[in-house]
Amino acid sequence: QGQLRESGGRLVPAGGSLRLSCVGSDRTFGDMAMAWFRQAPGKEREFVAWISWSGGATYYAESVKGRSTIFRVNAKMLMFLDLSMLKTEDTAVYYCAAGYFSGSYDDLGDYDYWGQGTQVTVSS
């Protein structure tokens, strides 16, 4: 608990952009891969983006590819997700997660630490 904390979620008009932030701890930064997931009402949590422990490799879900950027600043224990050209279907609670990479980007079970989430609402 308390290892990850997200912020930056807000109400945004469709077509807009925002930056989500995730602050971690010594335990979650340094040698763990990190990712963003999201969960819309009534739906399962789904993978959004992944970044390696060094930040040198990234991977995106098709739904956000080309309009999102994940990056991290390990020295400050911060990870970010920039989202642009937002759509109403991007509305969800966004979670950051950390875990040791095992070959899967989108398996929730591969992540040991989760934040509490931050709400993103895209209005039409």
Features:
4-stranded antiparallel sheet, 45% strand, 7-stranded mixed sheet, 11 strands
What are the SSEs and their pairings?
Layout: E1 5-7, E2 11-13, E3 18-23, E4 33-39, E5 46-51, E6 58-60, E7 68-73, E8 78-83, E9 92-99, E10 113-114, E11 118-123
Parallel strand pairs: 2-11
Antiparallel strand pairs: 1-3, 3-8, 4-5, 4-9, 5-6, 7-8, 9-10, 9-11
Characterize the structure shown.
With 124 residues, the chain is mostly beta strands. Helix content is 0%, strand content 45%. The strands form two sheets. Strands 2, 4, 5, 6, 9, 10 and 11 form a seven-stranded mixed beta sheet that branches. Strands 1-3-8-7 form a four-stranded antiparallel beta sheet, with no helix packed on it. A hairpin with a 4-residue loop joins strand 7 (68-73) and strand 8. The chain is globular and about 40 Å long. The chain starts with a strand and ends with a strand.
